[in-house]
Every structure is written in structure tokens, then in C-alpha cells.
Task: structure prediction
Amino acid sequence: MKKFSPWSVVFTLCAIALAGTAIAGTATTTGLETLYTEVSGWLTGAPGKIMAIGFIILGIWQARQGSFLWFFGGLLMAIVLTVVPGIVDARFTALF
Result:
């Protein structure tokens, strides 16, 4: 008999426990819209700007130590944090 890893058992139990909530959606799906609005507000508001500045500072700090890849990674993360929510909003308003 084959032994199952603990992670596969945990994943299976979580999938079974959450299967009812996946089926029980309504036409308005206000739960996910509320969550999306909250996260989008964080990313476009003050917390997102603080994280973007933090990534840029981290990149500059690592570039001073000789790793320029960290600088470009921090710059890319700052751009992603500030631009992606607008792209996602434009995409969903165009489709729906």
C-alpha cells in the first residue's frame, strides 16, 4: 500500500472543506468583489506606495553592495505594485 505525504493529505482535506463554498456562489459574488476592492485599495493607496518605496530602497541598498540585479528587481516590483491594479481594472471593465 502506498503512503501519502502529509502535504497531500492536508491539501485534499482543504479542497474537500472548501468545495462547498466554491459551489455556493451567487450571481453578484459580493464577497470576492469586496476582497478585490480592499486589496486594490491597498495597492493603489498609501500602503502600496510605502511598499514600492521600500522595494526601491532595498534595490538601491543591494546595488551599493554590488548586486545590480536587486536594483532592477526592486524597480520592477515597484512598477508592478503601482501599475497592475489599473491594468486589471481596465481589463475587467472592458470585458464585463
